[in-house]
Each structure stands twice: as C-alpha cells, then as structure tokens.
Design goal:
Blueprint (H helix, E strand, L loop, with lengths): L16 E5 L3 H12 L3 E5 L44 E5 L8 H5 L35 H14 L6 E2 L2 E7 L7 E10 L3 E11 L1 E4 L6 E2 L7 H7 L4 E3 L13 E5 L3 H10 L5 E5 L16 E4 L2 E5 L18 E4 L4 E2 L4 E4 L3 E2 L34 E2 L3 E2 L5 E3 L8 H16 L8 H15 L12 H19 L9 H20 L8
Parallel strand pairs: 1-2, 1-8, 2-4, 8-21, 10-17, 11-12, 11-17, 12-13
Antiparallel strand pairs: 3-7, 5-6, 6-7, 9-18, 14-15, 15-16, 19-20
Length: about 500
C-alpha cells in the first residue's frame, strides 16, 4: 500500500519540527498525517508498544489514591528526592525507587482487559489512510484493533519516528521563546537494573495525543478509603480490571452505569453469583434492561460502613466483606464481596507545566489554564484542538461519544494542514469569541466535549473553514470521511446508540 505524500505550499518552507505525545490511535494517525504533509515528526510513547488503550498488558495498572477526584501533578516516583538534570543518565538497581515495579511506574499499564471488544462497527472506526481488510467483521477484539494501529504506523512511516519507553515529563515554552521545550525520560533495562536517561528537546509545535484513560476518577464516598485500606484486593477501579475469573461465585458491586460497567457486567455473567450495578441516573447511562440477568440495578451509594468491633482474624477471606454499603435511597447491601469502580477518568496533562491546577475551579478558569480542579474538561481550546493562547500546541483526541478512530484521524489531518501552512486559524480574538459562545451554549464540565449528537456538524464546520482556505490558495481540498462512512454512521446512530440508551435489545450486538 502506498500512502500519498503531500507538500506544503512553498517548496522553500522548512519542515517544522513537531513532537507528538502518545502512540495510541490519536497519536499514530496524527503523526501519519504530519509526515504526509512534510513535517519533521518525533512521537514519544512511554510504553514499549503502540496501541494505546487497545494494548493489552496483563499487569494491573497502578492503584490510584482513594479518593482521586481531582488531577494532581505527576510525581517522579522513580527517583524519589532527586531531580535529574537535563541530559543526565542514572543507573539504579531494581530495588530502588518507591517500592514499586520500576517499569510499571514509568509506563503504567492501560485499561485494556481480556475479552475487550469494539463497541462501534469497523465501518466507522478507521483512518482515511488505511481501510480494514476485506471481510473484516463489524466487531472484534483488542488484538485485532492493536494490529490495525501497528499496521497504520508501519505503512505510513510512523514506526520509524517513534521513541518507545520514553515518557514526556514536562512541556513548557519560556517567555520570549518560539520553541517548546520537552523534557523526556527514557527507561532501559540493564544487567544491573535500569538506566534512566533524561533529555531536553526543542520543537516548533507539540501535539498532545495522550488520551482520556490515564487517571482513574475515584469518587469521594464516605468509608470507601477505609474499605480499600482494609480489603485492598476487593476494591478496584475498572482500569485495573483484567479478567472475570477472580470474581467467581462473588457478589460484585459495580459503581457506574456507562459502557465499561455494562461490558464488565456481561463479562462477569457466568462467573459472579450476583451483580449490583449502582447508578446516579446519569445522562449517558446504559439502559437497565440491557444488563445480564444476574445484575440488579440499584441507586447511588452513600457510604461504605464497617462495624466498630470488627475482628478480621476470624474473617474467612472467601466470605463477603464484613460491612455494609448504604444507598442514598436507604437500602443496605450486606453481602458484597468486591467493588469495581467503573467511574471513569479525570482529564489530566501533568506534563503541561503551569496549565493544570488542582485548586482552581472550572468557573475560575483563566485564559491560559487547560485543566482545572474538577478534571472534567479541557479549557481554552479552539474546536477542541488548538490552544487559543498559542495554537502551536495542539490536542488530538479530546472529544468523546464519537467514532474515535475516524474523528481523531480527521483532527490529525486538520492539525497537519494548519502546521504545514495549508490552512489558517482565525485571530486569537475570534477563536476566543467562538470558544466563549460554545461555553455559553454547552456549559462547563465533561459534556462540553461530548459529540453524541454533534459529530457530523462538528466535522462539517471544520471542513468548511479548512477548504475555504484551500480554495483561496488553490491547493487540494481536504476530503474528510467518505460517503460509506456517512451511511454506516447514520445506521449506527439509529440502531446501537438508541438501543443502548432506550434498552432495545434487538439493536444491540453483544
């Protein structure tokens, strides 16, 4: 397969040096387009493989804090009490660090679990640069999806520009500078232990494509931290879930009612004895009628309780937790063995120095902050892509409730057009005005980025702007998604999405 290479308007324009953070689908597809448009690209991936959330790692991820309801700066757990200087190399033994497994601390495993399947059809889950092979089914498992990302990386030349095992620690632009400074740390295993190499790099532009699924959201429920402390193996976030076997014969309380809770409930069917699915009654909850027969929908949890005179010496570890979960409607659950928190994730970019705050509220967000204390939205982005104060910092993969592969591919090409000079952004004042109008229309919070009912208008709006510029300069217009995608998307919208929200089992393929 040959990937067409496009060039910038002026043959004398030097290629801009662009850093891409993350080798999931948003990073790989962005890098693919950037290379096509003649840009000089380096892609940083902290793990040893491309694939992002579709890369299965049997090791569970690092346990988050309890509660973990606001983003926090990234702690350097590898070298406690010592900040490496730029271009410094340090060798330390496997036993060094913060008492954990050094590779896991450097690159925490993602949320992919055994049996994870796609929940949207492959007909709308693709890059414009690579079609699925003829005869590919509409739904399949994570290994096939990861292979698709690897194939895209290899065929487009992205594989040659990826630096694996390299974590971006900091992204900053000093006042008066026209370059972004990236500080990275690369981990290598040696006979003695591990070698960590810290470097400082300069780039003209940065594309943040690190995804949504880094920092688990752990709600601040009364008594939950105590349960986690006393019964650490029985309380987990869905990011740490790997397989249903450990829940054999148990009564499992799943907190959350979106897609991951629904999927895990179906995985537990045939293994667990009973499932309680707790919901707050959210806008995007999966219908109760689609749960397996062993799952009982229950209300929001108010507290987790333990008796004052609890004596764990007499507790049989095969038994349920010797405490109760009280619901807000007054019901008490007294037979829970394990709790899975399918409560979603915080938006966080801990490497964006000065752009993330764990104390500033979303209402207090100024014109430069990206992440505020709630961790529910990314502020100050034009079209969810370009950082308004400095559009040489771009984001791909911020929207959700969308056909991720296709939409992020679309965003990646838009970024490539802008950074290569083939499309021009409005003035900062106009971008700010558009952003303000969107805030007034959609409000603040996580739903700000939802494209559940707006994906096609979102793409059409951007395509109109990009191709107006193309027409003025006489260059090839951007095609965007094709007619087959539109037909498949329309079918998907009127079947699966409606089925999930309204409980029509005839429209759901599980």
């Amino acid at each position: 397969m040959t990937i067409e290479t496009l060039r910038t308007q002026s043959a004398t324009t030097p290629a801009r040096k662009v850093a891409v953070v993350g080798a999931g689908i948003s990073g790989v597809t962005s890098a693919s387009h950037l290379l096509r448009y003649g840009l000089d690209v380096v892609l940083f991936e902290r793990s040893n493989a491309a694939g992002g959330v579709w890369h299965f790692d049997p090791r569970p991820s690092i346990e988050p804090r309890y509660p973990n309801d606001r983003p926090a700066p990234l702690d350097d757990k590898l070298i406690k009490g010592h900040q490496l200087e730029d271009d410094e190399v340090e060798v330390f033994n496997s036993g060094d660090g913060d008492g954990g497994d050094i590779p896991v601390l450097h690159a925490p495993p993602g949320p992919c679990y055994e049996g994870l399947q796609t929940n949207i059809p492959t007909t709308i889950m693709r890059s414009t640069l690579l079609s699925w092979p003829e005869g590919t089914p509409e739904h399949f498992g994570h290994y096939d999806v990861e292979k698709y990302i690897h194939d895209l990386s290899r065929l487009t030349g992205v594989e040659r520009v990826i630096e694996y095992n390299t974590r971006v620690e900091e992204i900053v632009k000093d006042p008066g500078s026209d370059k972004w400074t990236l500080r990275t740390s690369s981990l290598q295993q040696t006979e003695e232990g591990y070698l960590l190499e810290r470097k400082k790099r300069l780039f003209d532009s940065v594309v943040v494509a690190s995804g949504h699924y880094q920092e688990p959201f752990i709600p601040n429920i009364k008594g939950l931290p105590t349960w986690k402390t006393r019964f650490p193996d029985r309380i987990t976030h869905s990011k740490c879930y790997r397989s249903p076997g450990k829940f054999k014969g148990q009564n499992v309380l799943i907190i959350g009612a979106a897609v991951s809770s629904w999927d895990i409930a179906h995985q537990l069917n045939g293994h667990a004895n009973k499932i309680y699915r707790s919901s707050r009654g959210g806008l995007f909850d999966i219908s109760e009628s689609l749960l397996p027969a062993i799952a009982e929908p229950v209300g929001e949890v108010e507290s987790f309780n333990l008796p004052d005179d609890i004596n764990l010496e007499d507790w049989n570890e095969e038994s349920h937790i010797p405490g109760t979960a009280t619901l807000k409607d007054g019901r008490v659950l007294s037979d829970v063995h394990s709790v899975i928190l399918a409560t979603g994730y915080l938006m966080t970019y801990p490497f964006l120095t000065g752009m993330q705050s764990s104390t500033m509220s979303r209402e207090e967000a100024d014109d430069r902050i990206v992440i505020t204390a709630e961790g529910g939205m990314s502020h100050n982005l034009h079209k969810d892509i370009f950082y308004i104060p400095d559009p040489s910092l771009c984001f791909v993969g911020v929207p959700f409730h969308c056909s991720a592969f296709s939409l992020f591919d679309f965003q990646g090409e838009v970024v490539s057009r802008v950074l290569s000079g083939q499309a021009s952004l409005p003035s900062e004042e106009e971008m700010r005005a558009q952003y303000q109008r969107r805030k007034e229309t959609r409000g603040l919070g996580r739903n700000f980025h939802s494209l559940l009912h707006d994906e096609i208008p979102y793409m059409e709006d951007i395509l109109s702007w990009v191709n107006d510029d193309a027409k003025k300069t006489g260059i090839r217009p951007m095609a965007g998604v094709d007619s087959n995608w539109h037909a498949s998307y329309k079918k998907f919208k009127t079947t699966a999405i409606d089925g999930l929200q309204h409980g029509d089992k005839t429209k759901i393929k599980y």
